[in-house]
Please model this.
Amino acid sequence: MTFTVQDHYFRKAKKEHYLARAVYKLEEIQKRFRILKAGDRVLDLGAAPGSWIQLAAGVVGGAGRVVGIDLKPIEHAFPKFVVTLQGDIFDDDFVQTALHDYVPFNVVVSDMAPATSGIKAADSARSALLFERAFEVALWALAPGGSFLAKLFQGSDFHRLLAEVKKQFRLTRVVRPEATRKQSKEIYILAMNLKKSTGGQ
Ligand SMILES: C[S@@+](CC[C@H](N)C(=O)[O-])C[C@H]1O[C@@H](n2cnc3c(N)ncnc32)[C@H](O)[C@@H]1O
Model:
C-alpha cells in the first residue's frame, strides 16, 4: 500500500502521540536552526491543538516556560511550566494583560492561519495580517537577541513583510518544511537575533 505525504505525517503524528502533523514543520526547523534551547521562554501564537507546544516543552524543559495562545481552547494537559490562554491575538488588551507576567520571551513562534476561503488573494491577505500582528507582538514581547518564526501564505505582501523583518533581526531565512502539504502556499519566515528590544516589557 502507498501513502501520500499527508498520510505519512498524519500517521507519524498519531504514532508519536503528537496532537497535530504540524509538529514536523517545527521539528525540521528546530533540527536545522536550533531556535529553541533548554531553559528558553517561548510564546506560541495560534497554538491549538498544541503540537508545537509539545515539541517546545520537550526542548525547553522545566527550567523554561511555554505560553500558547489561540482563539480555540487548548485542551491537552501539559506540564506545569506550560500556560495556555484562549483569546484573539488582535485584541491588544487581552495580549498585554495575558502576557504581562510572562514577558520577555526568547522565542516567539506563530503558526496562525486564517480560515481559508479558497480565494487565493483573500486568503494570502488574511495570512499577511496575522503575520504582521505576530511580528508586532514579537517586537513587543521578545528579549534582545530573541528569535521569531511565523507562517505566511505567499502572496503580494511577502517581499514587503520579509524586508520589514530583515530590518529588525540580524539573520533571516525563508523556510518551506518537508511536511508542508504540496498544494499549500505557506512558507515560514525565520528571524534570529533581534537587534534590540523595542518592547513594552
Ligand atoms: C495551523 S493551526 C496551529 C497548529 C499548531 N501549531 C499545532 O501545532 O497544534 C492555526 C491556528 O491559528 C489560530 N488562529 C487564527 N487566527 C487567530 C487569532 N486571531 N488569534 C489567535 N489564534 C488564531 C487558529 O484558531 C488555529 O488553531
In short: The longest helix spans residues 120-141. The domain at 37-62+114-201 is CATH 3.40.50.150 (Rossmann fold). The mean pLDDT is 93. The longest strand covers residues 142-153.
